[in-house]
Design brief:
Number of strands: 0
CATH superfamily: Hypothetical protein af1432
Distance between the termini: 29 Å
Protein name: HD domain-containing protein
Oligomer: single chain
Bound molecules: fe (ii) ion
Strand content: under 5%
Length: about 170
């Protein structure tokens, strides 16, 4: 449902899910936690259901207001998942925190290092990677090396920690 909302993000959630599931295996997480992480991967952009398609698929530059509306999607992801008892808690947080960054530059809650768990950060960093390797209306998908270089700079700039970056590299290289 989510991937179909925008032709540019088709398969995005599935791709993300596969990487986080691989990381769960590398971390030696138990089956239940690994599967929950996979579900969080599938549902992380659920909140995009409330963002109008004209904005999601807009080819030109977004206005400030449109950008603000897009940036509300992880808030809605969490709001929706928190209504469902089996998703409330871990799955809702892992999914809803995927745009938060350890230096508090993320959104929607501007959470920081102390409030973000390793698995929150894992979903976040994998989301960036998966987005970079996919085609977008304004650019072709990047290669693995190029994408990892960009994320390496994000780590240097304090947006992610080395811990999740190492896990990502082990999962995709
Ligand atoms: Fe997102």
């Amino acid at each position: 449902m989510i991937d179909n909302k925008s032709k540019f993000t088709h398969l995005h959630s599935q791709g993300l899910s596969e990487i986080v599931f691989e990381i769960a295996k590398i971390m030696g997480l138990d089956d239940e936690t690994s599967n929950k992480l996979k579900i969080a991967g599938y549902l992380h952009d659920l909140g995009k259901m409330v963002v109008p398609n004209e904005i999601l698929n807009k080819e030109g530059k977004l206005t400030k207001e449109e950008f603000y509306i897009i940036k509300s999607h992880p808030y809605y992801t969490k709001l929706i998942l928190d209504q469902i008892p089996v998703f409330k808690g871990e799955i809702s947080n892992w999914a809803g925190n995927h745009h938060e960054r350890v230096d508090r530059s993320g959104y929607p809650e501007k959470l920081g290092k102390d409030e973000l768990s390793l698995l929150d950060r894992v979903v976040g960093i994998c989301d960036v990677y998966q987005s970079l390797i996919e085609d977008r209306p304004y650019r072709k998908g990047l290669g693995q090396k190029e994408a990892l270089n960009i994320i390496s700079d994000m780590v240097k700039n304090g947006l992610f920690l080395k811990e999740e970056f190492e896990l990502l590299k082990r999962a995709v290289v």
